[in-house]
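Could someone model iron/sulfur cluster with this protein?
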Amino acid sequence: MTGDDPREESASGEPTTGEPLTDGGAAGADDVALDPWGSSSVSDYRNLFEEFGIEEFDEVLEEVPNPHYLMRRGVIFGHRDYRPVAEALQNDEPAAVLSGFMPTGDPHIGHKLVFDEIIWHQQQGADAYGLIADLEANSARGMSWAEIDEHARDYLLSLLALGFDPEEGELYRQSTNRELQDLAFELGAEANFSEFQAIYGFDGETDVSHMQSVVTQMADILYPQLEEPKPTVIPVGPDQDPHVRLARDLAERMRFFKVSEAYASFELEPDERALVAEFYERLEPEAFDDDQLRCVHVAEALEETPLSELEVDADTLRSVLTKLEEAGMEPVRPRTRFFDRRATDEAFDALIDAIDGEKRVYESHVDAFEIDRAAAEALAREVEVDTGGYGFQPPSSVYHRFMTGLTGGKMSSSIPASHISLLDDPEDGYDKVKAATTGGRETAEEQREKGGKADECPVYELYAYLLAGDDDEFAKRVYDECVGGERLCGDCKEQAAQLMKEFLAEHQEKREEVADLLEQADIELESPRRR
Ligand code: TRP
Ligand code: SF4
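Reply:
Sure, complex below.
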């Protein structure tokens, strides 16, 4: 394991697109591996959509009320299942936002993106959570508790200084949150080592504490739903996507009931179900005299249809036919099925009672004939929550681009000149920007003629991600002037350096102002642990 924060290590060395920052970065090279503790780099963001099923943020943007500038500018480029969160914000319904920070070094301008995302969601009405991943820092990074305490305070001060409201929201550290640890223990019962091996590459040498920090992160992600299920977004870098996927799986596995659609007493795989659904429609069940379309009828119709006209392979067809023939004269009737996954007897009985209309009860499922799928999902959750379950909704995520290092390449805490810490002396911040690599041409003449390469310029990124703030016109002006050849790098950097200096001075002043707020906040600033 390296000693760096993955968020920095994964920073892209490839050019990122500028204004608008929309599609992926460079084409071609694509060594995509999403590793939360490794040094994966993202060379092609588009690959994340194709290979990992991350969705493009642009597609939900319209549904987001007052989108943050990081959303508008494509810095937040991807998401998983963000729609329910956007909808809840839109309708003033309960929603939550949570992210965590490993206190391994100073908070820097890359972390500011995540702070801003939490704060924005809080301001839109979501319950907001900021956590210190001290167990992870200790187990995966070998940080001492004294170091952890020092860095934790710095992260928290910056989060508050940027506008997090600790009275409305919740701050905690993993190690002292008892409810969190209880949840982690429960979730651990639904995950096993082979799975960790497949997802994270753990092996026989991996510390057990490191594995525990994973279930702790799973608990972090579901923690906002302990009181009641609600859409929850986890803003992180794409390196954390494996964690998000696992948390979504675990949320599902914790559910008491699984709702699906069925046509007869037996179970169908999804592609089998689609086939039966299609033939059910095609056979026009109303037309059957005695009102009874039976399994054998569907089987016959299937057998008369050439395989080439069906959208399934021979194995699937054979499997459906076997099921239909075995059921024989059983009527085919669409129904909503509640499958008992981990329900208590009490919960199962409560579900049976709660189902209105015609129903049929089996050993480990109930079929309902008068409830549609959506209503069934809602009912299953309601019964689960009423009978002591969590009823988790799968957590959502949003992913932001990694900032390019000021010296080109990755932004890394081990290369001080590559990043700007939120604690940097404002003069040092000024100097670092002045010394940054740019997307400028060899000579001023060439630049006037061809324009600068804003898309490949870390200084332009500073404007887009931070310095232009909410002012889109300003960001666009910088971009247009740069690529139009009107803006030269010397002046451009001078302006950016000045803005950076002002930002740091102001931020640090605010950090001092919120020191009391932090003292009063409900979070232990000193770990009781010392080794
Ligand atoms: N693993 C995250 C990191 O490396 C920190 C973290 C812990 C976290 N728990 C979390 C992030 C929950 C988001 C949600 O930075
Ligand atoms: Fe970058 Fe500014 Fe130079 Fe354009 S003019 S390349 S944005 S430093």
